[in-house]
Design goal:
This protein is an alpha+beta fold and 132 residues long. It contains eight helices and four strands. Strand 1, helix 2 and strand 2 form a beta-alpha-beta unit.
Length: 132
Amino acid sequence: MLVFAISLWSKIIHTHLQMITIHGIKNCDTMQKAFKWLDANKVPYNFYDYKTTPPTEGIVKEWLTQIPIEILVNTHSTTYKNLSDSQKADVLKPPKCFGIIQENPSILKRPILDIDGKYIVGFDGEKWRKEL
């Protein structure tokens, strides 16, 4: 029992020392689920609304070190469907994608969870629990 308590306490301390940022759009339904999950699990986080402040080229480049562009871009979104054919091709090709993403941040899948520089795309409570 003592070992379990120490292990649990260690995990709680570690979680609260981690810097967690959730990137997305405030009014998105999936984001709302993610916020509720983080709050219910008492996980402190910072929120970066990329609808109001599009991600910089540097942020997108950092994401792409761990996330393939085909996963980062939501090709099922209305935003993607409204792009021209040439933009649809370019948004999946770094470095051409950077300007398109900055002009159309809603094209990104959400949420993007940043746990001390480790990135997870999409909301999956079980996966998040394992990472936190």
